[in-house]
């Protein structure tokens, strides 16, 4: 079920015109008291299909935290990783104005038309960067996706600011370009 939900979230911008984060902001501003009211609004006012509307409303109620709160919670007890996260995020956001950052409970998805990267604080000393680069061979540093499963094709372990180097930026660009 988790894989199907992730696929739905990844496809949301292309299918509904907005990312999950954007829909959450819209629903938060409206502050619907009931699930059905929010569903009717999304379907009637925005033409969102029933399945996407239900997912958006369910996830909005489940996560009434701001994007900033979600990221803060991810790094509780792992605060020394925040400079690495911020440098990595800045590098990703420079790839293009169409990059959408979608924080979730345990990670931050980076989406163009599809998810191309995922940032996850894996341990107190390491961030795992998931990348989606089909048909790219693995290397010692560019590992198979590991715990990301099918959400990503590769994983890079990042423990220091210096790990965000030209090689890593090139992989990010490749993933970004393939997500159009």
Model description:
The protein folds into two domains: 2-62; 68-178, 2-Layer Sandwich (Yope Regulator, Chain: A), CATH 3.30.1460. Helix content is 47%, strand content 15%. It contains seven helices and six strands, in the order H-H-H-H-H-H-E-E-E-E-E-E-H. Strands 1-2-3-4-6-5 form a six-stranded antiparallel beta sheet. A hairpin with a 5-residue loop joins strand 3 (115-121) and strand 4 (127-131). Helix 2 crosses helix 4. It is globular and about 50 Å long. The two termini are 26 Å apart.
Largest sheet descriptor: 6 strands, antiparallel
What would CATH call the architecture of the largest domain? 2-Layer Sandwich
What structural category do the secondary elements indicate? alpha+beta
Uncertain regions spanning at least 5 consecutive residues: none
The succession of helices and strands, N to C, reads HHHHHHEEEEEEH
Average per-residue pLDDT, rounded, comes to 91
Major β-sheet strand ordering: 1-2-3-4-6-5
Beta-strand fraction estimate: 15-25%
In total, how many domains does the architecture comprise? Answer: 2
- What is the radius of gyration computed over CA atoms, rounded to a whole number of angstroms? 17 Å
Q: DSSP helix count? A: 7
Rounded to the nearest angstrom, the distance between the terminal CA atoms is 26 Å
CATH class of the largest domain: Alpha Beta
């Amino acid at each position: 079920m988790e894989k199907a939900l992730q696929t739905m979230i990844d496809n949301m911008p292309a299918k509904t015109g907005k990312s999950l984060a954007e829909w959450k902001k819209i629903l938060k501003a409206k502050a619907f008291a009931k699930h059905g009211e929010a569903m009717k609004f999304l379907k009637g006012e925005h033409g969102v299909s029933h399945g996407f509307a239900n997912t958006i409303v369910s996830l909005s109620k489940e996560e009434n935290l701001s994007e900033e709160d979600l990221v803060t919670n991810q790094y509780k007890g792992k605060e020394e990783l925040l400079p690495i996260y911020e440098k990595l995020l800045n590098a990703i956001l420079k790839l293009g104005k169409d990059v959408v950052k979608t924080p979730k409970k345990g990670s931050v998805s980076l989406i163009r038309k599809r998810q191309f990267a995922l940032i996850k604080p894996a341990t107190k000393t390491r961030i795992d960067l998931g990348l989606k680069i089909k048909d790219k061979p693995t290397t010692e540093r560019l590992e198979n996706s590991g715990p990301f499963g099918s959400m990503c094709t590769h994983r890079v372990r990042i423990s220091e600011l210096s790990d965000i180097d030209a090689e890593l930026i090139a992989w990010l660009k490749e993933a970004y370009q393939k997500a159009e």
